[in-house]
């Protein structure tokens, strides 16, 4: 959701849960409706985000919406029969994001929650979450000075000396297992001209989520997966069915840069 001012915070969770529990108690039914694109544009003209979705993603004369109590929204469905089917729920966290992942677009608020058909399952889930938090490798790794993370390289790990020993030991073990099973390691580039991704189909579907940049009037992108690069490996010279390198499989060299490790298949 988009807020003109302020943002959702943890102190709001209880209030949100109270509203949700009220909706559950009312047993509001979910009703599927089919509407024309023109009627939807008129209905949601107050919401610029809904208008964008309708204009850009609804390519048919009609589409579906669902009504639940006073709420009506774009949705493919299906849903449970009514909100009374939800027996227990909890708001778990909130976060900020950008419209369609574009950092230059509007900031949106996300609220996460979970529900169960009975209290026993909720209790089991809570216990599991508490136990998992005690064994959170992200916290343990920092406490034991194995690694850490930094916002200036979000999602990437900085390995400290003791952690690097563990990492290298695991890599050596993985390589030994490859050899035992008859596989050979290969290394492919991290960066490709987007013509490759257009051929593979990645560009048409995932371009907005790929790391791309211009180089000498050509567009390149960092690889999100290894398969297209392996296709180039296989095709760099003519091969017969008898000498096709099946032992390469899709195993990328695990001793490369951290980027290769993060983006392996």
Features:
265 residues; 3-stranded antiparallel β-sheet; extended
A few lines on this structure:
This protein has 265 residues and is of the alpha+beta class. Helix content is 37%, strand content 22%.
Describe the structure.
The chain is an alpha+beta fold. Helices cover 37% and strands 22% of the residues. It contains 10 helices and 10 strands. It has helices spanning 13-25, 37-43, 48-57, 119-134, 137-143, 161-180, 194-200, 202-206, 227-235, 258-262; strands spanning 30-36, 62-68, 71-74, 88-98, 107-116, 147-149, 157-159, 191-193, 212-215, 218-222. The protein has a 3-stranded antiparallel sheet with strand order 1-2-3. A hairpin with a 2-residue loop joins strand 9 and strand 10 (218-222). The protein starts with 12 loop residues before the first helix and ends with a helix. Mean pLDDT is 87; it is low at 253-265.
Strand content: 15-25%
What is the helix/strand order? HEHHEEEEHHEEHEHHEEHH
Question: Could you say which overall geometry the principal axes of the C-alpha atoms support?
Answer: extended
Give a quick account of the main beta sheet: strands, pairing sense, barrel closure: 3 strands, antiparallel
| Average pLDDT figure | 87
Helical run tally? 10
Number of strands: 10
**Order of strands side by side in the largest beta sheet?**
1-2-3
Computed over alpha carbons, the radius of gyration is 25 Å
**Low-confidence spans:** 253-265
Structural class: alpha+beta
Provide the helix percentage: 25-40%
**Terminal-residue CA separation:** 33 Å
């Amino acid at each position: 959701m988009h807020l003109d001012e302020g943002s959702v915070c943890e102190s709001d969770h209880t209030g949100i849960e109270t509203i949700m529990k009220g909706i559950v108690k009312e047993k509001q039914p979910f009703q599927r409706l089919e509407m024309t694109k023109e009627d939807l544009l008129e209905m949601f003209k107050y919401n610029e985000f809904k208008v964008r979705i309708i204009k850009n993603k609804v390519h048919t004369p009609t589409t579906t919406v669902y009504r639940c109590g006073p709420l009506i929204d774009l949705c493919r469905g299906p849903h449970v029969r009514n909100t009374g089917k939800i027996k227990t729920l909890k708001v778990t966290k909130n976060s900020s994001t950008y419209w369609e992942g574009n950092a230059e677009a509007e900031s949106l608020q996300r609220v996460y929650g979970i529900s169960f058909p009975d209290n026993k399952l909720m209790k089991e889930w809570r216990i599991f979450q508490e136990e998992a938090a005690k064994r959170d490798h992200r916290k343990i790794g920092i406490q034991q000075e194995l690694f850490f993370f930094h916002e200036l390289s979000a999602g990437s790990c900085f390995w400290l000396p003791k952690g690097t020993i563990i990492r290298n030991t695991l890599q050596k073990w993985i390589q030994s297992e490859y050899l035992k099973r008859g596989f050979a390691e290969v290394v492919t580039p991290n960066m490709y001209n987007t013509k490759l991704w257009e051929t593979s189909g990645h560009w048409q579907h995932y371009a907005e989520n790929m790391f791309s940049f211009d180089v000498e009037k050509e567009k390149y992108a960092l690889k999100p997966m290894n398969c297209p690069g392996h296709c180039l490996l296989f095709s760099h010279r003519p091969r017969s069915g008898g000498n096709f390198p099946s032992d390469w499989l899709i195993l990328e060299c695990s001793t490369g840069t951290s980027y290769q490790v993060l983006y392996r298949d």
